Amino acid sequence: MHISSKIITSIRKEPILKGFSQIRYFSVISPNKAPESEEEQGIEPPIHEDIFKSSKKSGSFRVGDSTFYSLIENFAKTGDLSSLEKVFCQMKRERRVFIEGNFILAFKAYGKAKRAEKALDLFDKMWVEYQCRPSIRSFNSAINVVIHEGLYHKALEFYSYVIIQEKRILPNVLTYNLILKLMCRLGLIDRAIETFREMPFRKCTPDVFTYCTLMDGLCKEDRIDEAVCLLDEMQVEGCFPSAVTFNVLINGLCKKGDLSRASKVVDNMFLKGCVPNEVTYNTLIHGLCVKGKLDKAVSLLDRMVQNKCVPNDVTYSTLINGLVKQGRAADGASILVSMEDRGHHPNQYVYSTLISGFFKEGKPEMALNMWKEMISKGCKPNTVVYGTLIDGLCRDMKPYEAKDILDEMEKMGCKPNAFIYSSLMKGFFSTSDTVKALDVWKEAKMNDFGQNEVCYSVVIHGLCNNGKLNEAITFWENHFSKGYKPDVIAYSSMIHGLCNNGFVEEGLKLFNQMLCAGSECEPDIVTYNILFNGLCKNGSISHAIDLLNGMLDRGCDPDLITCNIFLKTLREQVNGLNDGSEFLEELVIRLHKRRRIVGASKIIEVMLQKFLIPKASTWEIVIQEVCKPKKIRAAIDTCWNTLFVK
Q1: pTM exceeding the 0.70 threshold for the entire prediction
Q2: Plot region of 220 (φ>0 → left; ψ -120 to 50 → alpha; else → beta)
Q3: What is the pLDDT of residues 319-355, one digit of tens each?
Q4: What is the pLDDT of residue 9?
Q5: What CA–CA distance (Å, rounded) separates 179 from 181?
Q6: Which stretch of DSSP H or E encloses residue 501?
Q7: Which fold would CATH assign to domain 11-24+40-170?
Q8: In residue terms, where are the PPR repeats (predicted)?
Q9: Domain residues of the chain, as ranges?
C-alpha cells in the first residue's frame, strides 16, 4: 500500500512479528476508500525495471541495489518525498534488501518537511514490512524528528513504548541526552533525574552534555543546590566539565541574584583549567547590571579584554541597557564609542535603548543627536527605533513632530504598530488636542489596530482626562456592544472619569461589571484607589471600608496612596484629632492574619514616614515574622553578597 493513502488518526498496536513488537502510532486505513494498488493509482516507478532484468545476486544483495540507495539519498536531500516513497515501494515490490541508512536518510527528509508522523510510521514499518531491524541509530533519528517538530509528549510516548516497555532496543548516551532535554523542557525534572539515575543500570555512561542538560533543568526550576552537587558528582565520576557546564551554573546563580556564589564558580573554572568565554562574561555582566552594580560590570568588561576574550554585541548591548536603566544614558553613549573603537557596529536595538534613555532623562536634544548619528552611520531604522523616537517626542509634548516622523516612516516602507499609534494618541491627548488624537485612532483602525487593547485604553483614558466623559461613554458603549473586552486600564480609566465627575455610583456599577469579567480584568490597587478617593470625597467612609475589606479578601495589598486617602478622610471627619494610627495598626494586624507579611511591613513603613509610632504589640507581630531563622540567613547572605560585589 502506498504511504500517501493513509490517514493519521490514531495509535494502534501491531501483533508481534519475528520476535520484534511494533507500535502503530499513525497508521489507519481510510474507511471511506479501499486501498489501491500502485498500478491503479498510476504511480510510475522511478527507474524502469528492465534495467535490472539481468541483475546478479551477491549474497543477499543484487546488482542495482546501490542505484536505489543513491536515489534514496538524492530524493532525501532534495526533499522530494513523493519520489522517495516511490523508491521504497519499488524496492519492496522487487524484494530488495534495505539497509538502515536508507531509513535514517528518510527520517531526516521527513524532519526537514516537518512530517514527524511520517517518520514514526516509517520506523514502525522497518521490520514488519521492509525486513530491516532498527537499531538505536534509527530510533534516535526518528525521535529527534519528533522533538524538533515540538511534539514532546508524542516523543515521550514513543520512547516509553519502544525503550521502556518493549526493551527491544538498548538506549545509548545520545538517546538519554535527547530524552533528558525533552523532560526538562516539559518541566518533568524529577522524572528526568530518575531517568538519569537508571543510566548505569543500562550500561550507559553520562557525558558532559548529559550533565549540562540536567543541571540546566535544575537551575530553571530554581534548584541550584542540586545542580551544584551534580557538578561535584560529575567530576568524581571522571567526567570533566566544560565552559558550557560552568556557564549553566553561573547563569542560574546570576538569575537568582547570588553573584558571590557565581564568582566562586568562575574561580573554580580557573582551578579546573577551564577558561571563561564570552558567554561566561556576558552572563556575569548581565547579573551585575540587574543588581545595579554598573561600575563593577564596566570593570568586568575591561577584565574580559585583558584576558583576551573579545566582547561581542551582546556584551555591549547588555552594558548599555543596564546603564540606561540606571539613568546613565551618557555613560551608555561612552560605551557605544568604545564599542565602535573595537570594530563593532551598533545595531538598531542599541540606538533605540540610548534614544529612549535620553528622552526619559529629559535630554531630548541628545536623543535627537543620537538619532541623527545613527542615520549618518548608515544604520537603517526599523519599527522599534521609529517607535522609540515617536514615543520620546510625545513624552516631550511634541506630538506634531512625532506625527511627521510617522509619515516619514510610512514613506520608507516601515509599517507602524499598536505601540506607535498609542504613543501618538497619548501625545495629542496630553496637549488637549482630542480631535487629532481621534484622527490617529481612526488611522490605527484602518490599519487593523482598532481592536488593540492598548489603543482602546488610551482613547478611553485620554477622553476622560480631557473632560470628554460623554464621548468616552459613547466610545465605550459602541465598542462594548461589538463584543470587545476592555482590559484593567480601560476599566480603571472609565471608573476614574465617572468618579471625577461625581458619578461614583455608576463607577461602582462598572467596577462590579469588571469583577464579573473574570480573572483577565482583575482590579488592581489603582482601580481600588480611584474608588476609595471617590467614596471618601462623597463622605461614604463606611462604604470605602467595606470595599477595602473586599480588596484584602481578593489578595490585593494597600499602598501609600491608599493610606493617604483614608488618613486624610479620618483627620477631616474628626477635626484633626484622629491621626489614623489605630486604623493603620488594624490594617497591619489584618494583613498579618492573612499571612501577607510584605504588605504588613509596608504599612509599618508608611506609619514611620508619617511619624506614627506603632504599638509594641504591632512591632512584635511583624518582627517575629521577618526575623525567622531562614529569613535572617537570607538577609545575612544578601549583605555578604553586596560587600563581595562592591
Answers
A1: no
A2: alpha
A3: 999 999 999 999 999 999 988 888 888 999 999 999 9
A4: 34
A5: 5
A6: none
A7: 1.25.40
A8: 172-206, 207-241, 242-276, 277-311, 312-346, 347-381, 382-416, 452-486, 487-521, 524-558
A9: 11-24+40-170, 457-510, 524-646
